[in-house]
Amino acid sequence: MTNQKDILSGYRNDISKYAGTDKMLVKSVFDAIPGQLSKQDKRFILASIEKNASRRKYGAPTQWLVDAGMAYYSFNVGSFELPFPSNENLKLYKLFFVDNGLMCAMMLDNIQAKVLTGDIFVNEGALAENYLAGELIKHGIFLNYYDRKSKHELDFIFPEGNKISIIEVKSGKDYKKHSSLDMAQKLFADKIGRRIVISGNNMETENGILYLPFYMSMFIRREV
Description:
The chain is α/β, with parallel strands linked by helices. It has one domain. The chain has helices spanning 2-18, 23-37, 55-67, 100-106, 111-116, 122-138, 179-188, and strands at 71-77, 88-97, 144-148, 151-154, 156-160, 163-169, 192-199, 204-206, 209-213. A 5-stranded mixed β-sheet has the order 5-6-7-9-8. The protein has a 4-stranded mixed β-sheet with strand order 2-1-3-4. A hairpin with a 2-residue loop joins β8 and β9 (209-213).
């Protein structure tokens, strides 16, 4: 944990050195990421950093973190249609951290011990969803989530051919309860490609849904 704290100090030093006049704003966004992901909806809310905070003020500092490879955007898509850029809402987004281990060090003390004993869903599954975001990015899959008027949020969606594939992150024994995924199937069946649920359980297929354990997310590739 000491080494992780040292790395985080190095990140903050780099921000101070290279982020120019925005360095304090960049640090504020950087330090806010774990707390924002620990919320149930995980959406990044600027007002939690500063009252009346605006995208105009914090947009460039946030983009600095993304350009520096410290964070990843996942933009909201409010319409289940391709192409995503035409339907993205750049004002609504999640911000994922580049490294799960370092995010542990930024969260509660001794959280690493919980993770190592298998409790990967601490803090509303922040670590689980953040881990998957990193895996998808590594495999060339851009991050988007679906949420229309705060109803039926889908954790990750991505285009495959002319279809939209869905990945949901689930915890515990109720991983087969996925109302948002089921609703999407009812509403958009002809538009959906693959339906994947990532959990701490074994691999299986049921009712057209592919269930994968977390470690198998390394094999997810976008099909052409």
